Amino acid sequence: MRFPEYRARRLRRTEALRSMVREIRLDVEDFILPFFVRHGKKLKAPISGMPGHFQLSVDVLLKELEEPVDRGIPAVLLFGLPAKKDPVGSEGYSDRGIVQQAVRAVKDRYPNLVVITDVCLCEYTDHGHCGIIADNDVDNDATLELLAKAAVSHAKAGADIVAPSDMMDGRIGAVREALDEAGFEMTPILAYAAKYASGFYGPFRAAAESAPQFGDRRSYQMDPANSDEAIREVAMDVDEGADLIMVKPALPYLDVIWRVRNTFDLPLAAYNVSGEFAMIKAAAQNGWIDGDRCMMEALTSIKRAGADLIISYHALEAARILQGDSRKREK
Q: Which residue out of 195, 303, 328, 331 is catalytically annotated?
């Protein structure tokens, strides 16, 4: 087909035409909305670098969930801030831990909401790393037992899905075995399968108060330059029993999302992380970009790359826009 026989602009002339031939469509049901929960009552502490997001006590969390549930966002991802940290992150696997308390409260109030729990130790350790420290490094195999204990404690509390994010070798197999032995063989695992040692996590580390007290996480999170390795990492998690897989971050790794999508047939999530969120917010606040338009463009790109599910701090704002557009069309 050659110009002028084929004119691509014919189907771009009006919004109705553009909508009719649109290839990728965002839906509210694509989203998972993260929350940060901590001990206390009536607490709603703003998070620096993440406008509109807060550290919440459980009672306030329940109130904050009303709109996302009403709008049909199907799932939340919970991160916890403990009352006290220690070298082994013991609150992370305590039945009285903050995430465990939050899960019980959320499932009691919103039984149909899918509750996903982050399984890691970095928020709970006094050194900020994702496992037990030995010789100034994380002891991979010693950490597996604690991660498995955390996952089981979350399942006992009522978590619908557990999501190990630590990037220890073998942790999916360890968690699957522990869940099965504890009678939670039907609890799915969402594996942070290709998680990169990224500079885009800064606002999250402030929100979760989980920055490492020494060194960094490059010895266990992936090198940003590697793509083939991501396929090996995902394959290992799938072989060990992952039910869903994830690429994190999303926007700098759209090529990795595409490769994973075309290699594996499991449900694929992508984490639109805090730094990605913060950049759009900061640019919009300075008047440099149309924040809503750029947000929706970024989220669409993640789905276009192949993600089935998008974990995003934009989720509620995006749902408002999507449903607003829907109401306009219905009128």
A: 195
Write the CB contacts of 199 (distance below 8 Å, at least 6 apart in sequence). Answer: 275
Distance CA 257, CA 15 (A): 29
Q: What is the DSSP string of 151-187?
A: HHHHHHHT-SEEEE-S--TTHHHHHHHHHHHTT-TT-
Write the Ramachandran bin of 270: left for phi over 0, alpha for psi from -120 to 50, otherwise beta.
beta
pLDDT tens readout for residues 240-287: 999 999 999 999 999 999 999 999 999 999 999 999 999 999 999 999
Q: Is 107 a catalytic residue?
A: no
Break the chain into its structural domains and give their ranges: 26-330
Calculate mean pLDDT across residues 129-155.
Answer: 94
- What's the rounded Cα separation, in Å, for the pair 141 and 145? 8
Residue 152: phi and psi, rounded to 5, are -65, -40
* CA 52 – CA 1 distance, rounded (Å): 49
Kindly report, residue by residue over 88-102, the tens digit of the pLDDT: 999 999 999 999 999
Active site residue 281: no
34 upstream amide cis, omega within 30 of 0: no
Catalytic residue chosen out of the listed positions 248, 281, 303, 331? 248
CATH code given to domain 26-330 = 3.20.20.70
d(CA 331, CA 327): 6
